[in-house]
Design goal:
41% of the residues lie in helices and 11% in strands. It contains 17 helices and eleven strands.
């Protein structure tokens, strides 16, 4: 008989249960439930027993009341488990140390009985229950949802271009229980973060679906150079504050591997979306001599173990974005790797048009010759999303949005030394050089026209050029405090 009651419960500070049932039609057949627990939890177990009887008219086997005086305790326990339909095990500090509780769980499994753990305190989930979904009845937890999306960088466009297939795939991965970790790899500026941003915004607009917790962290704050710090201390501190029941007061283990293992267990307790954006500062950019480490491998042992545990036991989805292909989970059946290609031509044209390129002259359809100029400009910048975005803004602001200005403004690669570097990696720098050269030309013209009493620093172009050079001091997002320090010096 299939009967799925809707149960509302509240937990007080002393594990008290509100047993007031909503009006409902009770089943005619009593469900048989075996309660496995430690003697120290008898008071709480009595409330659970009353709760099950009140809500589903369950026939509950509880050794306190179900075993007659003088009966063989071990045999009665076996009989109770054999006759039950499911076993409910109370997970507490005392029960996880009980040999009886573990034997009862193992015996129920040997008979093919479903095992339902109910957690009532902050004790660790024991290994014999590590692969089972746990009901969280801890005080203060209830159905509280946790969503932390503050660390997700905002995209530079309010619209997602050319990534419809990848966006659909993310939603499919989220709904697929066989997929636990997804990685998107591509060079910088391709649109990995933009894809995540729009995915999260759509989830939020839809009420987050089945998710109970969302935690997003960006490692771009550490920079991406090989000589920069490659630890994850700030991430673990923030993640423990989010997932641990003690919140910001939670103590982060000192051992990195223990950090990863404990955090993985906390995350797996709820349907969680974990996003690790820009993981490359924590990855090896080259293989070590003698196979000491592998290109794309993770340097931080805590993050390495965290991803491995979530791939094996996660109950939600972990998304990683990186410029370096993630090698760590290759061969794991729950891992999916997606390489993000450059923008398709039509999507790139749409991006340029939306940013004002030939929008006034041709508001509707592009004539064939003009379209040819669009394709040439897009091909020259290798369909690279960030390069196209920067170039379009430069041309729209200073060259009336004329597509042919791309060929005049964006410098070509001339010398052999630059051509030895893959052009894809040079495109954003070519646009920055074009902006620098354009500002210099404006300043040069101003200098020739200005009087002796004028100051060149009063020119907007001078301010913009200084800002461009100032930004070049940073390889990561700069805090207002750091910017203030630079200004003071």
């Amino acid at each position: 008989m299939n009967w799925h009651p809707t149960i509302h419960f509240t937990l007080g500070g002393a594990h008290s249960l509100d047993l007031t049932p909503a009006p409902s039609k009770l089943p005619t057949k009593m469900a048989k439930v075996f309660l496995s627990h430690s003697t120290a939890d008898d008071r709480y177990v009595s409330q659970v027993q009353a709760f099950l009887r009140a809500m589903i008219d369950a026939d509950v086997f509880n050794d306190i009341f179900s075993i007659p005086a003088g009966a063989d305790f071990s045999e009665e326990i076996k009989r109770g488990i054999a006759e039950c339909e499911r076993l409910v095990v109370i997970v507490s500090r005392d029960s996880i140390r009980s040999a009886w509780v573990q034997r009862e769980v193992e015996y129920a499994r040997s008979l093919g009985k479903p095992v339902i753990p109910v957690r009532i305190d902050n004790s660790d989930i024991p290994p014999f229950l590590a692969t089972v979904n746990v009901l969280d009845f801890r005080p203060g937890r209830g159905n509280k949802l946790h969503f932390n999306t503050r660390s997700l960088p905002a995209t530079y466009t309010g619209k997602l271009y050319g990534r419809d297939a990848e966006l659909r795939q993310l939603f499919l991965d989220l709904d697929d229980p066989n997929v636990r970790v997804v990685a998107f790899d591509a060079m910088g500026g391709t649109g990995k973060t933009a894809l995540l941003f729009h995915f999260v915004q759509q989830l939020k607009a839809g009420g987050w679906g089945r998710l109970q917790s969302v935690f997003i962290w960006s490692f771009y704050s550490q920079g991406s150079s090989e000589d920069k710090q490659s630890h994850a201390a700030d991430f673990f501190k923030a993640a423990f504050a989010h997932f641990h029941p003690d919140g910001k007061a939670a103590e982060v283990p000192k051992d990195p591997r223990e950090q990863g293992e404990v955090l993985a267990r906390l995350i797996a307790e709820q349907a969680t979306l974990l996003v690790l954006d820009g993981l490359e500062p924590l990855q090896y950019a080259a293989s070590g001599s003698g196979g000491a480490y592998q290109y794309g491998g993770i340097k931080d042992p805590g993050v390495k173990l965290l991803l491995a545990q979530l791939a094996d036991h996660g109950t939600g989805l972990t998304i990683v974005t990186t410029r370096i292909q993630l090698r760590e989970l290759e061969g794991n059946s729950s891992f999916r790797r997606h390489h993000l290609d450059q923008l398709p031509t039509e999507a790139a044209i749409e991006l340029l048009r939306d940013l004002g390129i030939e929008k006034t002259a041709f508001p509707e359809t592009l004539p064939a010759p003009v379209r040819k100029d669009f394709v040439a400009a897009i091909d020259d910048l290798k369909h690279h999303a960030l390069s196209l975005n920067l170039a379009a803004r430069l041309v729209a602001d200073h060259h009336q949005g004329q597509i042919r200005a791309f060929a005049d403004v964006i410098p070509r690669l001339h010398d052999a030394a630059e051509n030895e570097i893959h052009e894809n990696q040079r495109s954003p720098f070519r646009v920055i050089r074009a902006l620098e050269a354009g500002l210099f030309r404006v300043l040069h013209g101003r200098l020739q026209r200005m009087s002796a009493a004028e100051a060149i620093t009063d020119s907007p172009a001078a301010s913009q050029l200084c800002l461009l050079y100032f930004l070049g001091l940073f390889d990561r997002p700069a805090s207002l405090e750091r910017i203030g320090s630079c200004q003071a010096r």
